[in-house]
Design goal:
The structure is a single chain. By secondary structure, this protein is of the alpha/beta class. It folds into 2 domains: about 1-180, Rossmann fold, CATH 3.40.50.360; about 180-210. It is about 45% helix and about 20% strand. It has 7 helices and 6 strands. The protein has helices spanning about 15-30, 45-55, 70-85, 110-120, 140, 150-165, 180-200; strands spanning about 1-5, 35-40, 55-65, 95-100, 125-130, 175. Strands 2-1-3-4-5-6 form a 6-stranded parallel sheet, sandwiched between helices. β3 (about 55-65), α3 and β4 form a beta-alpha-beta unit. α1 crosses α6 (about 150-165) and α3 (about 70-85) packs parallel to α4 (about 110-120).
Length: about 210
């Protein structure tokens, strides 16, 4: 089976979405051909569209932007919708993985609903979506053994998610929070902001300056 991995993060490298797809790839690479694409601009080349259309499954991974889909990826989806309507190809199953900086994973629900509605407009089949909370932790979780500690919810949920992809099954969307106390996640995030402020030559109080 040909599977298209579409990374919709605007980051050139080291994105949480890329980390999610890398972890998922370990579970799908056996017996399948995984084709990886990184949508960094608002346009998709014609040969890329044709290559994706040759796949039986599409897996999107992207960060949550203002409770929705990043603008550049949304433009790509509009272009893809026109393409799929033109070629009348409907035997593709679509899955979505959305991560957000919020601790609460259900913050991703609207973005997954947008992606599901896009499938309907394209005439494609919606398989399943996964909303991932605590996206700011994902890069650090790469160093944590799978299924252990704060990584357990993420990797365990990805197991069943990958099984549904292998069978091209339609399933209910799932939402996972990190196995990590919310207050500790908030403290770590605030410490990160303060470090960024200092690196840019400012002070913590400048975060609260009103102009």
């Amino acid at each position: 089976m040909n599977i298209a991995f579409i990374n919709g993060s605007p980051k050139v490298k080291d994105s949480a979405s890329g980390q999610v797809l890398t972890t998922l790839s370990k579970r799908l690479s056996l017996g399948n051909e995984i084709r990886e694409y990184h949508f960094l601009s608002s346009q998709v080349e014609a040969e890329v569209l044709a290559d994706i259309a040759d796949c039986q499954v599409m897996v999107f991974a992207f960060p949550l932007y203002v409770d929705a889909i990043p603008a550049h990826l949304l433009n790509c989806l509009c272009q893809m919708e026109t393409f799929f309507k033109t070629i009348h190809k409907s035997d593709i199953t679509v899955y979505g993985l959305v991560n957000c900086g919020f601790y609460e994973s259900n913050q991703n629900a609207l973005a997954l609903e947008i992606l599901e509605n896009w499938c309907c407009h394209c005439g494609l089949t919606w398989g399943q979506g996964m909303g991932i909370g605590g996206g700011g932790m994902l890069s650090m979780l790469a160093q944590v053994p799978e299924g252990k500690g704060p990584n357990s919810n993420f990797t365990n949920s990805l197991e069943s998610f990958s099984d549904h992809i292998k069978k091209r099954e339609t399933w209910e969307n799932v939402y996972i929070n990190p196995n990590f106390p919310r207050f500790a996640y908030k403290l770590a995030a605030e410490a990160g902001w303060r470090q960024m402020v200092r690196r840019n030559g400012l002070k913590t109080r400048d975060l609260f300056t009103k102009k």
